[in-house]
């Protein structure tokens, strides 16, 4: 290799790395892609949390558009999100189902819901992460929009805010109801 090629090599490496970084900066770091989008909900059957008689299964997601929210009483972001989930319930906009994920004690989630309110239509207890793993959950809270055929249409990672509800979730729910 001649001297000129050696001088050009660092420039080419720099340009290549700059290109990768430029593409990376155009992506929203809050969006975590899910291979489950447009796929049927994974099969799961969760027992009820303490104080409830009925659990939550994948079969419960057939027949109407609904939300599945993965939460835990230990999750700070879930605590931030919770008042907005209560507003969704109060307005009776869409069935909201919960998966109580990885509680340290069996009564932690139910006690937390007693103190702060229970927005969920159905809740399943998932202490060993079986359903969470099937959904590909990376952390709590995560919320999935599921259509009436029990197909996952959208995954939101992080707390639901009024802005996310108004701009993304509610329009998608309405669109899926029209289909």
Describe the protein in words.
The protein is of the alpha/beta class and 179 residues long. It has a single domain, classed as Glutaredoxin. Helix content is 40%, strand content 17%. The protein contains 5 helices and 7 strands. The strands form 2 sheets. The chain has a 5-stranded mixed beta sheet. Strands 1-2 form a two-stranded antiparallel ribbon. A hairpin with a 5-residue loop joins β6 and β7. The longest helix is centred in the N-terminal third of the chain and has 23 residues. The chain is globular and about 80 Å long. It starts with a helix and ends with a helix.
Give me some keywords for this one.
single chain; 179 residues; alpha/beta; Glutaredoxin; five-stranded mixed β-sheet; two-stranded antiparallel ribbon; 7 strands; 40% helix; globular
